[in-house]
Amino acid sequence: MSHPTPSAPTALLGLDAIRAELAGIYRDLHAHPELSFAEHRTAAEVARRAGEYGCEVTTGVGRTGVVAVLRNGPGPTVLVRADFDALPVTERTGLGHASTVEGVMHACGHDMHTACLLGALKLLADSRALWGGTVLGVFQPAEEAGQGARAMLDDGLYERFGTPDVVLGQHVGPFPAGTIGAHAGPAFAAADALRVVMHGKGAHGSRPETSVDPVVMAASTVLRLQTIVSREIAGSETAVVTVGALNAGTKDNIIPDEAELKLSIRTYTEDVRRTVLAAVERIVRGEAAVAGAAREPDIETTASFPLLVNDEDAVARTMAAVGAVIGADKVFDPGPVTGSEDVGLFGAEAQVPLCYWLLGGADPEAFGAALAAGTLERDIPSNHSPYFAPVVEPTLTTGVTALTTAALAWLDAR
Ligand SMILES: [Zn+2]
Ligand SMILES: [Zn+2]
């Protein structure tokens, strides 16, 4: 690479002085989680800190999103993104900084993304002498709903703050803290969430002959949906079809009127995605017809995440820089993951390269022990678990280092 980059090690010298403050911010965010599009306290905290660090701050972008801009003369525009919503999960980590909000938890680590981006903005603001260009710090709401990136773009993110030349970001995950995983090409699955309502005909539980039983209809549908991946998708392809919710009825002796199913579908190519979605519709309608339902089922898309494709050259350039700072042996290729992310929209909208990587969050010793014992699934909680709890360090230091270094790899040297 001929591109002369600003010195990341010089910019990172300031990290020691802010490490304790960032850990405090992380714990505070963790203790005060907020659901998608309700991140009011979080947004206010982020705006206040970013303002103190010298960013031009705008709140209310895409409802609760925050944009923190560092302008530093001519040069490239680098978008660095963190999401900041939490999940409807009751925390069971028992940590001192556990959620203080009943039934809401930062179970996906978005609090860590947010603290890391604040740290990176502080280091970049304090090292303006090293670099030229513009840094767009994008704090995105409602990632879990698959709506936040779209909302910020629709609110004029690029028209108001400038179109980026590259989009960078990270997601914490259940592998050793201190390491970074990046996969070029399709890296996070496309996800579609569907809500299906199957209509039967209610009756007294003692008189099934007068009913069209939606419980049996739904049960049969759930089983047949399992054949999509096993019977309709080639062995060389991959897909996930999960029925995460199945709700019907209230009481043992009442046959209800309807049953509701909630599905999550993950795919890695548009072909497979279309095949799976068409099969779901065919099966749902087919089972309703077989059961003699008088009314067609309702099928509604409740969330849709596009396939996240990492640009090959962007991954190479960014990870070369990150590896040079944290050690090339700490950077690995995790392959594609079945999780989904709406960060891809930021790159796709501007038709610019995206590099989105995974940040290790598990205690390296605990991870090593679990790996050796073959108990990873049991002992290392994954995202969305009520036990998911990244170790604060070295996760935070690695995350701030990666974001800062990655941004500098795309800014001009001064
Ligand atoms: Zn999540
Ligand atoms: Zn997440």
Structure, described:
- This protein is of the alpha+beta class and about 425 residues long.
- The chain has two domains: about 10-185 and about 305-414, Zn peptidases (Aminopeptidase), CATH 3.40.630; about 190-305, Alpha-Beta Plaits (2-Layer Sandwich).
- It is about 40% helix and about 25% strand.
- It has 13 helices and 17 strands.
- It has helices spanning about 10, 15-30, 40-50, 110-125, 150-155, 155-160, 215-230, 270-290, 310-325, 345-350, 365-375, 375-380, 390-410, and strands at about 55-60, 65-70, 75-85, 130-140, 165-175, 180, 185-190, 190-200, 205, 240-250, 255, 260-265, 300-305, 310, 330, 355-360, 410-414.
- Strands 1, 2, 3, 4, 5, 6, 15, 16 and 17 form a nine-stranded mixed beta sheet that branches.
- Helix 9 (about 310-325) packs across helix 13.
- The longest helix has 22 residues, at about 270-290.
- The model has no long low-confidence stretch (mean pLDDT about 95).
- Bound molecules: zinc ion (ZN) (2 copies).
- One zinc ion binds next to loops.
- One zinc ion (ZN) binds near residues 108, 144, 383 and 384.
Number of domain modules: 2
Number of separate strands = 17
Q: Please count the helical segments.
A: 13
| Heteromolecules bound | zinc ion
Task: State the end-to-end CA separation.
Answer: 17 Å
Structural class: alpha+beta
Order of helices and strands: HHHEEEHEHHEEEEEHEEEHEEHEHEHHHE
Compute the CA-based radius of gyration.
Answer: 23 Å
